[in-house]
Amino acid sequence: MRSKVVRIGIVAGEPSGDKLGAGLIKALMSEYPGAEFVGIGGPKMRQAGCDTLYDMERIELMGIDGLFDKLGDILKIRAALYRKFVAHPPHLFIGVDVPDFNLGLERKLKKKNIRTIHYVSPTVWAWRGYRIHKIRRAVDHMLTLFPFEAEFYKRHKIPVTCVGHPIADEIGQPDKIAARKKIGIPISPGNLVIGLLPGSRRSEVKNLGALFVEVAEKIHNADPTIQFVLPFASAQMQKIFYDVAGSTAQLPIFTLNGQSRDAIEASDIVVLASGTAALEAALLCRPHVIVYKLSPLAYWLFQKLRHVDYYSMPNQLLPEPVIPELVQDQATADNIVHAVNEFIKNPQKVQKLEQDFIDLHKQLKRNANLQASKAIVKLLESS
Questions:
Q1: 301 pLDDT higher than 70
Q2: Which DSSP letter does residue 190 get?
Q3: What angle do CA 368, 55, 140 make, to 5 degrees?
Q4: For 191-210, how does the pLDDT look when each residue is reduced to its tens digit (9 = 90+)?
Q5: What is the CB-side half-sphere exposure of residue 143 using CA atoms within 13 A?
Q6: Which helix (H) or strand (E) segment is 38 a member of?
Q7: Which secondary structure element, helix H or strand E, spans residue 211, and what is its range?
Q8: Domains plus CATH for the chain?
Q9: What is the pTM assigned to this prediction?
Q10: What are the CB-based long-range contacts (under 8 Å, 24+) for 132-136?
Q11: How many CB atoms lie within 10 A of CB 113?
Q12: Of 83, 306, 326, 372, which one has the greatest count of Cβ atoms within 10 A?
């Protein structure tokens, strides 16, 4: 515990960042009990003690497809936040993810001699590699979740600490039976359960909802004993799903409000949109199939600017990229069903994959909140 009173600016722009920010605030509060946190966040950061000047939904970006609808408001908020921090400088500014918002703000604050930390590396190693120069101008210290990211920044002479991934800290030994009891899924012993996770963003659910129902229909017609669990990120996403997919009353689909991680743990195999859910599935030792569809423009841009061959983080981290990825034109019901059946018919392949997942979990479990807090304290105490 330190007697120094610190004021920290902090911005998160989506639920995963809100959770990361809240964990970091709590860890820093144990070092600086009187610390003040001010900026942008969600309910978890507010509960942890952050004075949120704007709700994070106002700066949340839904990828390229949703950028132009909110751009004007986002730029106004960023300018107002900059003016506030310059008028009342914090000891440190922490940008939690949302690089398109935070890096520009960090660069301007750094010019005013306000030190900056960026928590969660932009995927500069995967696409839009030219951003590394912008990052160097904006960031005093980068906090990464994955070891290979830290090596990337070291090569580019940017101060960095790999803190591990908070999800790896949260997830313990997977227990399929306990998870099924927890969510109350009515399933007969021995029946196969397939998780369906069409994503947490409007564009994802619109693009994948009907496709996932078609997949469930084909699997059900081939084997009526197989059951499905479908968690919705919110009531809004549930409505969007049924608007595009229609009724699922004819299928053995058990729906949940939230609880996506419980749904993954309760499943034998998971079909999911690329994103955080893929990492959760890997850390829960569940074989999964990555499915993703973008608008033609967004996909064209990504293809032009990417530097990697695989989309999901588990495929970046595993010794070999063995998770099926069905993207854009490859994302068809027949292809997804085939990938699911490959897992069903090859238990030895699944067993090998599960061991790789266990090794990955060990690699990423580092007590991320504590490690991030230590790096920040070191920077604060160096003044």
A1: no
A2: T
A3: 45
A4: 899 999 998 888 889 999 99
A5: 30
A6: strand 36-41
A7: helix 202-222
A8: 7-164+366-381 (3.40.50.2000), 170-364 (3.40.50.2000)
A9: 0.84
A10: 132/156, 132/158, 134/103, 134/107, 135/103
A11: 7
A12: 372
